[in-house]
Write a structure and sequence with these properties.
- The structure holds two protein chains of two kinds.
- Chain A has 26 helices and 39 strands.
- Chain A is α/β, with parallel strands linked by helices.
- In chain A, strand 34, helix 21 and strand 35 form a beta-alpha-beta unit.
- Chain A is elongated.
- Chain B has a single domain, classed as Rieske [2Fe-2S] iron-sulphur domain (Rieske Iron-sulfur Protein, 3-layer Sandwich), CATH 2.102.10.10.
- In chain B, strand 5 and strand 6 form a beta hairpin.
- The radius of gyration of chain B is 13 Å and the shape is globular.
- Classes of the chains: A alpha/beta, B mainly beta.
Chain lengths: 824, 110
């Protein structure tokens, strides 16, 4: 297919790994026609992301997902890939490469990218079945196989690689012990304090540590059975993973008589010192005395080497500053530069919050950051690292620097650096939206090509920030970077939706002050752009009117989202799920029997216990809903409102009735709360819980309103959430009687109903208005509290009719559930 | 454009008043469920009851103007053309419908 034109030179690449192939990619960008390229790879796979092997081990990615360049990519770019057949000899005089199977090819330029080998210390027993390194797909497959068939693993090595191996095996269900030669983990990236925090957290997750542990022997005859340490400790194991480090793979280079020290010695142009036609990149090289194991400098090498191969002889490699992150879900570690002061002229600033497990240390030299170690909260790692790389003078914010970007730059006033800089510094391939897998490049291209100017438009076109929304600030930064002054982040409250320029608060105020009592009237008086609104604003307006005019406003079913209109939860196949209420999580044989009968009679496809202590029946057809409800009603059950932006459940523990630790009747308290609050509509769903003692088995501290019993009364707290952003409740106050619990709860819920924006949970609402405000209204203002509680009870008079019973009885309200049949 | 479903005879399926304004009812047919919508201005539309995105029952969505928002993932479908509102791309099959003396007639496959 490819005619070899006389101008094209032959480039042979030895090594099909990340460094070699990144160099080829960079070369194709610069000079796509310059070379005919052949790649020899020892592994029988296309090029994959070796860094992501730990994610494959932990079950977060599949092997397919970590392939960087598929075989099609090689074909499309006219590259010949010889995989599974390593190059074994190079004749520099004849300029030929020979593979293990005897393939022999001539080259004009040769690129060596043979990477590294795992360090294999001379431990007796290493090499037995059941021992492996953690370096390639083969190792991972071996580890996964062991995890399926065996129980115990020992990982030797407490650095980045060893820890990720240990965590992956733990995630796969093995019991894991980790042996580390040094007293603390990751001692090359972390100081002692951060290393200890890391060990404490991983210990909590069930990894057993043997620090100061020198492995003397891997025991076993036909297969590894354990590890023996020099101090006599012995650990049983079915799998032993040795992950103590890597060393450059220089065997071939040595045989070629190239200059080899620890790695293949290269100059600033990535040329080997002996032969100007031979280049080397990646973990196999040594540049100015340094060898490499992290990806950032290797990408830089790939760029420089490709430029050299493309004829740009001035391109020179300089090792960039390095930073490290550990890839263990939920454990955040950041490290860059120096770990500690080198001498008296250096300064160390530290910050530790033991309760939150947060630790930071900065090392300063002549008012510049030369090192940063962070544990727990690493959000500002990128910011510190950027200042470290750029040699920013931090004297002006020295006092607040350790507190992080927000505080430090606020203290600086006008001199604050551009908040978009961190996003600007990200590479195009950096993932911005984790939910939908959207990278920075895809967003900036969509902004440029489709002329997008708003967050909404970016969401619509790319799905970035359209799911959980936690990347919204980054997406807004990208808009600002792309559009400059053309992007104005909405000031103050954003409009409710595209139908209006008004925000939620303005609309509610108008409803109250102008006494507006219907949706069409709101739209008319407030100049709605779409005369009938949309699927977003109509449910909001319906709630605001319902909340403001209880007993007066007639609920508009056609402005309800399907779940609230049908009083059941729609599922992805268009069927519904049905959850009857179980007061405080209590049920009875009679109720369970009725549920079982319904499940059989209506072919319920799945019966599941919910997190809110009730039972969910899945796969009910729309037409069957009223009949299902009729049967449940007959056994005394009512709607659980599991579909509502309203009161869902009151979770309880068994309390003093049964539990030897219980201090109060938490179940009874929960039932009372549920009887008071069921049927109430809210801006979003609302969940309550009551625990009978501070052990808090009902998880009351991640609920919207949580009650925890103590000997002397009840602790009340609000604004918790167990969803995307887990948030523990803020303490409200302590009260003594059950009547007070009811009063404070009703008042809090009424305040939330009246003042939060539609679809705003209590957690973000409490954060927005501040717990201090909530306390002033609910705790300090007794008269106001009683008035709010009274308003709540007044509203409830109109709400506590079972919507199921009404529809199960037939009549007009049952009509929408029926399917029409054409007259034949 | 999808083109209408090519059909034979007109079949009565009910009265306009059977459908709430800004609402819909489902009609069973040989080609699957059909959603029959009644807009606020009493215009009646009929489409297959399957969103072009992931098959959500459009009949259960919120109707606004001559459009419906799908209950599953909030695609907005224009009831006149059957097309999804930009930037989403897709089209739902429309069923010919006519109203005579308050009775709704669909043209269904014979």
């Amino acid at each position: 297919m490819n005619m070899i034109s006389p101008q094209r030179q032959r480039l042979v690449v030895i090594g099909n790994g990340m460094a070699g192939m990144r160099t080829v990619e960079e070369l194709l960008k610069r000079a796509p026609q310059r070379y005919d390229i052949t790649v020899f790879g020892a592994e029988p796979h296309p090029n994959y992301d070796r860094i992501a092997l730990s994610s494959v081990l932990a079950g977060e990615k599949t092997l397919e997902q970590i392939v960087i360049n598929s075989r099609d990519w090689y074909a499309e770019n006219g590259i010949r890939l010889i995989a599974g057949d390593p190059a074994v000899a190079v004749d520099r005089a004849l300029k030929t490469v020979t593979s293990a199977s005897g393939v022999r090819l001539g080259y004009d330029k040769l690129l060596i990218a043979t990477g590294s080998k795992p360090l294999a210390p001379p431990i007796p027993g290493l090499g037995l079945p059941g021992t492996c390194a953690f370096r390639d797909i083969n190792d991972v497959e071996l580890m996964l196989e062991a995890a399926r068939n065996h129980r115990r693993a020992v990982v030797i090595g407490g650095g980045l690689l060893g820890l990720e191996a240990a965590w992956g095996l733990k995630r796969r269900g093995m019991g894991v012990a980790l042996v580390h030669l040094m007293p603390t983990l990751m001692e090359r990236q972390l100081d002692t304090h951060a290393g200890m925090l890391l060990q404490r957290d991983l210990d909590k997750r069930g990894i057993a540590f043997f620090t100061n542990g020198q492995t003397e022997q891997i025991t076993g005859a036909d297969r590894a059975t354990g590890v023996k340490l020099a101090d006599g400790r012995e650990i049983e194991a079915d799998l032993v993973v040795v992950a103590i480090g890597i060393r450059p793979n220089v065997d071939l280079a040595r045989a070629m008589d190239l200059e080899v020290n620890r790695g293949i010695v290269v100059d600033d142009g990535l040329r080997t010192s002996e032969d100007a036609d031979i280049f080397a990149v990646g973990e196999c090289i040594e540049h100015r005395g340094q060898v490499f194991g992290l990806v950032a400098p290797i990408w830089e090498q790939a760029k420089v080497c490709a430029a050299q191969l493309a004829g740009e002889e001035e391109a020179a490699y300089v090792t960039p500053a390095l930073s490290t992150r550990l890839k263990i879900t939920g454990i955040d570690v950041f490290s860059a530069g120096a770990l500690a002061a080198a001498d008296e002229a250096d300064e160390e600033i530290t910050f530790a919050d033991a309760a939150r497990g947060v630790y930071r240390k900065l090392v300063l030299r002549e008012s510049k950051i030369v090192g940063a170690v962070m544990y727990g909260d690493v959000a500002d790692g990128g910011w510190y690292f950027q200042m470290l790389r750029e040699g920013t003078d931090v004297a002006a914010m020295r006092d607040t620097l350790i507190l992080g970007r927000t505080v430090a730059t606020a203290a600086l006033g006008a001199a604050a650096p551009d908040p978009n800089a961190a996003v600007a510094a990200l590479p195009e391939t950096a993932e911005i939206c984790g939910c939908n897998g959207v990278c920075k490049g895809a967003i900036t291209r969509a902004i440029a090509e489709k002329g997008l100017t708003t967050l909404e438009a970016v969401r619509a076109h790319t799905k970035a920030s359209a799911s959980c929304g936690s990347c919204t600030p980054q997406v807004e930064s990208l808009l600002a970077l792309s559009l400059g002054d053309g992007f104005q982040k909405a000031a103050g409250e954003k409009p409710m939706c595209k139908c209006t320029a008004h925000g939620h608060d303005v609309v509610r105020k108008a409803i109250r002050e102008q006494e507006i009592k219907s949706i069409p009237e709101v739209m008319r008086r407030l100049d709605w752009k779409n005369p009938e609104g949309c699927g977003s604003c109509r449910p909001a307006l319906n709630f605001y009117l319902l909340c403001e005019w209880p007993g007066e406003y007639v609920d508009d079913a056609q402005s309800r989202f399907v779940n609230e209109r049908m009083h059941a939860n729609i599922q992805k196949d268009g069927t519904y799920s049905v959850v009857p209420r179980m007061w405080g999580g209590l049920t009875s044989a009679k109720e369970l029997r009725a549920i079982a009968d319904v499940a059989e009679k209506y072919n319920v496809r799945e019966v599941k216990v919910t997190g809110g202590q009730r039972i969910d029946l899945f796969g009910v057809k729309r037409e069957d809903l009223p009949a299902v409800w009729r049967d449940l009603n007959a056994a005394g059950m009512v709607s659980g409102h599991a579909y509502a932006k309203g009161l869902r459940t009151v979770k309880t523990c068994v309390g003093s009735t049964w539990c030897r630790f219980g201090t109060q009747d938490s179940t009874g308290m929960g039932v009372q709360l549920e009887k008071m609050t069921w049927g109430s509509w809210h801006p979003h769903k609302v969940k309550l819980a009551v625990s009978g003692c501070p052990r808090n088995c009902a998880e009351a501290t991640i609920k919207d309103f949580g009650v925890v019993a103590v000997d002397s009364g009840w602790e009340l707290s609000v604004g918790g959430n167990g969803g995307i952003h887990v948030r523990a409740t803020d303490k409200l106050c302590k009260v003594e009687t059950e009547a007070e619990v009811l009063e404070y709860c009703g008042a809090f819920l009424q305040l939330y109903r009246e003042e939060a924006r539609y679809l705003e949970r209590t957690a973000p609402w409490v954060e927005r208005v501040g717990i201090g405000y909530v306390k002033r209204r609910i705790v300090e203002d007794a008269e106001g509290r009683r008035a709010l509680h009274a308003k709540f009870l007044h509203s409830q008079q109109f709400m506590q009719d079972d919507p199921w019973a009404e529809r199960a009885a037939g009549g007009a309200v049952a009509e929408p559930f029926k399917t029409l049949v054409p007259a034949e | 454009m999808d083109g209408m479903v090519v059909t034979g005879h007109w079949t009565e399926i009910g009265q306009v008043v059977d459908i709430p304004r800004q609402g819909a009812r489902v009609v069973a047919s040989r080609i699957g469920d059909i959603a029959v919508f009644r807009a606020l201005d009493d215009t009646v539309f009929a489409t297959l009851d399957r969103c072009p995105h992931k098959g959500g029952p459009l009949s259960q969505g919120i109707v606004h103007g001559h459009a419906v928002t799908c209950p599953l993932h909030s695609w907005v479908i224009d009831l006149q053309s059957g097309e999804a509102a930009a930037p989403d791309m897709g089209c739902v099959k429309r069923i010919p419908v006519r109203v005579e003396d308050g009775r709704i007639l669909l043209s269904l496959p014979a």
